Amino acid sequence: MIVDVHSHLFDCPDHVGDPFAAEAARAHGGEVDLTVRWSQYAATAPADTRTVVVGGKARRSGLWVDDAAVAAYVAARPDRLVGYLALDPTQPGWRDELEHGHRDLGLRGIKLMPMYAGFDPADPAHDDLYAYAERHGLPLLVHTGTTFVSTAPLRYALPVHLDEVAIRHPELRMVLAHLGHPYEGECIAVVRKHRHVYADVSALHYRPFQLWHSLRLVQDYGVWHKLMFGSDYPFTTVDASIEGLRAVGRVPGIPGLDPLDAEQIERLIHRPSLDLLGLA
């Protein structure tokens, strides 16, 4: 079984406004159709794929997906999909949204977008959010790394901020998205320290040298087991992500260095991430 820990639900233009929508072409290779269609996702993923679906809330960047939309989407396919709620703690009412998404809608994790929403994830002011998630076993998927959105402050996307969160909340399960690119070394340093902190490899395969280099750092630091598979659909697909990972695994090692461990790449693709996140 394959577990995709990072896919989105967007219904454009209702959920995605500017500047996010207007600047999405910077993500990779030109315009991206952000409207999510289950039929397209299913056609580009193995039939046994289990998928975490997130919306997203970041008023500063023009992104707002109501948690009820995510709950309805995953309820139609409960054997395949796991839904997360999303929070923008800069906006009033976030605490009520947290409890409603968890208790009433039955969503099983939390998506945070600190850079897009414009908040410091390490600020102790957010400890009530983290304590709630830790207490109720709600894993976090946190955007780390760069973005195409001009209004999003990069400093809030640095993986090192989540080190402070993990120190204060050691039982909180977190996944740092996109291996923190282009701050992969920093991301690796964070996930290596903390038992329940992981990174996903979503939206990396279309920069193959960067992916190869990142996985080489993972190999050198001995943290293959801290990586989880993710796609970042609709920016790319499960099938393309799998092939991209296997392609860099076939690259011969540069002189004096071994190639990437192909067996570890297969373990990454098939990692039982729902078990590790307490969601099985």
How does this model look, in words?
The protein has 280 residues and is of the alpha/beta class. The protein has a single domain (3-277), classed as Alpha-Beta Barrel (TIM Barrel), CATH 3.20.20. It is built from twelve helices and eleven strands. Helix 9 crosses helix 10 (238-249) and helix 10 packs antiparallel against helix 11 (262-269). It is globular, with a radius of gyration of 17 Å.
Secondary structure topology:
Elements: E1 3-8, H1 20-23, H2 38-43, E2 50-54, E3 56-58, E4 63-65, H3 67-75, E5 81-83, E6 85-87, H4 94-104, E7 110-112, H5 114-117, H6 127-136, E8 140-142, H7 160-168, E9 174-176, H8 184-193, E10 197-200, H9 208-221, E11 227-228, H10 238-249, H11 262-269, H12 273-276
Parallel strand pairs: 1-2, 2-5, 6-7, 7-8, 8-9, 9-10, 10-11
Antiparallel strand pairs: 3-4
Helix pairs in contact: 8-9, 9-10, 10-11
